[in-house]
Design brief:
347 residues; alpha+beta; Phosphatidylinositol 3-kinase Catalytic Subunit, Chain A, Domain 5; 2 domains; 5-stranded antiparallel sheet; 10 strands
């Protein structure tokens, strides 16, 4: 594995949802009629920065709304939460209150993070409201289909609502928890190899440590680890093939070093093959859905012609497969990736 400072586009454009993708979202019940839109949350006058307990800027801000606007937004946000969690059954929010809204101008989709609290026991949850970006939606769908993880989100007009993904931020985990004597470092390294393989195949880019979380599950006398992506803004947009390989980001060096220290070339290949086999199983069980998603992409702009050409040429060279040169879209490249995975598993 290698490390370098991979450069990516800071400002990827937000692609509107096209007719093909909208039809797909309706078919798979991802669409909804929400009581508010993303633009409604932009009615704030000013913001206050959110500082963590160590005095460090988190890049999140608390927007300050006029009181009458805030009260109205809070009522509507509870309904949005009920739509996301219980198909609109508002009984689940009878004892819940919106504690605060946070805004991040740093991300491509400039998300709002909503904290909702049960006033009976102080148990809280988060959810996110973002600008609807077609490439991000494709990333969420591919995560649902090709990874072992499930995602929960809703789309309405220009608005995307996403469930909070629980876990320890990857950068925080690598600094403070990775080398705990309670944890088997080989298991962590194994999961990073598998995560790297999923990103490569599904063209999920910019998986720096702060864009994924580590989920830890106790299991008999050990712990299981699962890395989950939490940011899909760079789904198959860039032309640089290394953007889709987490091993190349300097922010992931602790994970790369752990893999180099605890895994051999033979075990790395074994774990890659295990992940490919899992992906093949998921593709076969979801073959109709992935076909519908591919068909939806045919009428949807998701990147630039320059990036598509650059990426397909890189794939043809790296994998010694000239068939990549026939790819006309980013989803064509993913389809070729999946076909090669199926072929490698059958060998």
């Amino acid at each position: 594995m290698e490390i370098e400072d991979v450069k990516i586009s800071r400002k990827k454009p937000v692609f509107p949802v096209g007719s093909g993708l909208l039809k797909y979202l309706k078919m798979y019940q991802r669409d909804s009629k929400l009581p508010l839109a993303y633009s409604d949350l932009l009615q704030f006058d000013e913001t206050v920065p959110v500082i963590d307990k160590n005095g460090v800027d988190t890049y999140w801000e608390i927007p300050l709304y006029p009181q009458h606007v805030q009260d109205h937004l809070y009522d509507q946000l509870k309904i949005v939460y009920a739509e996301l969690k219980a198909s609109g059954n508002t009984r689940i929010v009878q004892h819940k209150v919106i504690e605060r809204i946070e805004f991040c101008a740093f991300g491509n989709t400039k998300p709002f993070r909503i904290k909702i609290v049960n006033r009976l026991n102080d148990v809280y949850d988060y959810f996110y409201i973002k600008q609807a970006d077609a490439s991000r939606i494709y990333g969420l769908e591919l995560e649902e289909i090709l990874s072992p993880n499930q995602v929960n989100y809703l789309y309405d007009r220009d608005t995307l609502v996403e469930e909070h993904i629980v876990g320890i931020p990857g950068d925080v985990f690598s600094k403070s928890r990775m080398y705990s004597p309670d944890y088997n470092q080989t298991r962590i390294a194994k999961e990073f190899v598998k995560f790297n393989e999923r990103c490569v195949i599904s063209l999920l880019g910019d998986m720096r440590a702060y864009n994924f979380v580590m989920q830890i599950t106790p299991d008999f006398d050990d712990f299981q680890f699962r890395i989950r992506a939490i940011d899909f803004d760079q789904q198959f947009y860039e032309g640089n093939i290394k953007v889709y390989m987490p091993q190349f980001f300097k922010e992931n060096y602790p994970y790369v070093k752990l893999s180099m220290d605890h895994l051999t070339e033979k075990t790395v290949l074994q774990y890659q093959q295990e992940e490919r086999s899992s992906i093949v199983h998921r593709v076969r069980s979801e073959r109709h859905r992935i076909k519908d998603l591919r068909d939806a992409s045919k009428t949807q702009q998701l990147s630039t012609e320059e990036n598509i050409i650059k990426l397909r040429e890189a794939h043809a060279q790296v994998y010694e497969d000239s068939q990549y040169l026939n790819c006309q879209s980013m989803t064509d490249i993913i389809e070729r990736n999946v076909k090669n995975v199926i072929r490698s598993v059958q060998l």
